[in-house]
Amino acid sequence: MQRRRLLSAAAAVAAWPPMAGAAASAGGPLLAAAWDDGAGRHFAGVLALQPGRGLVPWRALELPTRAHGLEVDADGSLLVAARRPGPWLLRWHPQRAAASAHWHWLDADRRGCGHLVLAPGGALLCTETDLADGQGQLVLRDARTLALRACWPTHGIDPHELLALPDGGWLVANGGVPTAPETGRVKLDLGTMNAALVRLDPQGRLQGRWRLPDPRLSLRHLARHADGTVAVALQAEHDDAAARAAAPLLALFDGRALHTVPATQHHGGYAGSVLATPDGFAVAATRADAVLHLARSGAAPGLQPLPRACALAATSGVVWAGGDAAAGAWQPPGGARQIPTPGLRLDNHWRRWRAGVQRAPAVSGT
User: Fold this and answer.
1) Of 52, 161, 60, residue with least CA distance to 115
2) Fewer Cβ in 10 A, N or C end of the chain?
């Protein structure tokens, strides 16, 4: 029944028309994003900055369910993953009709975990769960057809974001939160949580596994700085509300060890996203209604207020943050400003959108 309902919704998708003058008056479309309209309808598309109005849809496609992670391919196409446990993947070019959208419905024995990343050589890597045993998988798919090519274990449960490494390997954040197919996102027996950061080689073989001392910190999102340091956004799952609120938002990984960045004050214990910046990292403290700007060491945070801050992206030296009813733009070392997003409730992630970029060359093993 649910699958028929989702298929029916997908058949009814329609592209929003472009906002007149939105792209032209602001120098072109800006950010690929997912959002809802506040009335239960979900969309993915590209936003443009329109003077006097803020960030508005330039092109958009209605989705059958809520989206989560997305990427922009070399030709400007959007690759979108459903929110976990997700039954679909999408490939769609914002400058083409809604009918050209390519939907891929996952087999009944697996569900997506909300994240995907483009791999060299025309491949797509996704985090998914094998419903037969509940274990996480790193899944290699064709970036055009979205068809499955191969899969490898992530050596944990609840895999979330994955990150490509310069040597062709991968980091995967296993969130470690136990769930069950019949109850969806409901968290079960948090006392058995087993979150870990794992490193896989280009052939999917395990090279290392790192855990934090606090087992109630779920590892969710990843960002790699130019110096090689990887930031891991954390979400606290402690039973005690005070312990959750005081929990750290970030861990840092130098290739050898994983350690938390101590919280200097209470920021809600929930990092919605993380982004590498020239000076360090930006972290969305969603429940504290702010974006934290930290040095590479994790020290000296700056703070940018933004209600329900979550999505983070960078364009030409500007850090963009998206919240429920507004976006923020911050350009170090200058100040920040808030930008309206009329009628949009932005989802967890967005990406810089460009009509065409150079695809990376193939790497052996992918």
Assistant:
1) 161
2) N
Report which DSSP code applies to 267: -
For 90-148, the pLDDT digits (tens) are 999 999 999 999 999 999 999 999 999 998 778 999 999 999 999 999 999 999 999 99
Q: How far apart are CA 134 and CA 156, in angstroms?
A: 9
- Please check whether residue 260 is in contact with residue 212, taking contact to mean a CB–CB distance below 8 angstroms: yes
> Which ranges constitute the DSSP H helices of 71-174?
none
For residue 257, the one-letter residue type is A
How far apart CA 79 and CA 145 sit, in angstroms, is 11
Q: Coil, helix or strand for 183?
A: helix
| Residue 157, φ and ψ in degrees, nearest 5 | -110, 160
Which pair of tokens denotes residue 164? 């490509």
Residue closest to 307 by CA, chosen among 322, 329, 292: 322
**Of the candidates 194, 201, 160, 198, which has an alpha carbon nearest to the alpha carbon of residue 177?**
194
Q: Please answer whether residues 128 and 106 qualify as being in contact, where contact means their C-beta atoms are separated by less than 8 angstroms.
A: yes
Q: What is the pTM of this model?
A: 0.88
How far are the Cα atoms of 82, 142, 173, 203 from residue 164, in angstroms, in the given order? Answer: 21, 17, 12, 13
Query: 3-state DSSP call for residue 7?
Result: helix
Q: Are 41 and 66 in contact (CB under 8 A)?
A: no
Residue type, 200: L
- Closest-CA residue to 161 (of 213, 203, 219): 219
344, two tokens: 């949009």
